[in-house]
Amino acid sequence: IKLYLNIIQLSKMTQLNRLATEYELLDRLYLVGIDKNHYGLITSDDTIVPFYLTYEPENECDGKEAYELTNEYGASGVVISSANASAESIDSLRDFSVPFCVQTDSDEEFCSAALDGAEKIFVSDAQSARGILDRWIKAMQKRNASSVEDYLNSFAADT
Fold it and tell me: What stretches of 74-125 show up as alpha helix (H) in DSSP?
């Protein structure tokens, strides 16, 4: 399980670093919620906990711009809104090897981000997202089962 901690106050970084180390959370704890107005208040010199900057491009999400942003502040990645999470912007982020998460506020945004290829998606209603995933998995299993059955039937007919 990955834990994304939405930062409200940046003044307790030393305590957070100590707790993350003490509870062995460094491999699964990430700080998020750092918007453009607060980029300069945290760098990789301040914390050993990886952090993601909220990335709000003026136009389409640009992997090069996000890559330069993460390098400038030592961030581990970016958080983009579902409005900026098109298939093209996701591909652009991947082309520049920028880790990212998509922030969603509705089931429709969650589904859209997942269909566009996002693997890390923030949701406001975890139960609803779990239900969507469960239904999708069942549909995929049913589809795959019928594909396998069709293949085996065609193979049997050829012999």
Answer: 87-95, 107-115
